[in-house]
Structure prediction request, 205 residues.
Amino acid sequence: MTDPLLKLANSRRRGAAEGITSVCSSHPVVIRAAVRDAALFSRPLLIEATCNQVNQFGGYTGMQPADFVAAVTAIAGSEGLAPERVIFGGDHLGPNPWRKEDAGAAMAKAEDMVSAYVRAGFRKIHLDASMGCAGEPAALDDATIARRAARLARKAEDAASGTDRPLYVIGTEVPPPGGADHLIGEISPTSLSAVQHALAVHRLI
Prediction:
């Protein structure tokens, strides 16, 4: 089967409108509903977990990355969805769960988390090192974000085995992990120049 994620990337480069069902939930009822839909229409399914939901310490679900994969795989099997149709994604993987600690400690834990995700079979890896840790500004500059993302990517590459290398997403043009914890009255779209600068800095580093 053609790699669904690479197929999406190639379609985007051609200017074709194409997508994939992506569900970021740890609730078994939600996962089962998504699995049934994918099985019914013979489509691939991207199931994601955030750094707060699932990490090497259990997150708020009590599951480590391998536990999450096992739980989803069991549901998929019970619904007749072929294992190769399920793609696992890690969302906002970075120091967010430990941002109240100093950057050194938080990033060390983030590196261990990313490694655990990749070893468990997560393929789509969203690297998010945009948040400041203890003693740092809430929003970091692009160079610091890129350097930390590069550290996490190196750990992911070191943990990968076989031919299915991780595929990365960078940036934070998405809701915060777990959703916003305050009322949002207005959303300011990211400017094209800001996107171009962030990409350039990541490529340079």
User: Anything to note?
Assistant: The longest strand covers residues 86-93. The chain has one domain: 4-204. The beta strands are 21-24, 45-50, 86-93, 124-127, 167-170. The domain at 4-204 is CATH 3.20.20.70 (TIM Barrel).
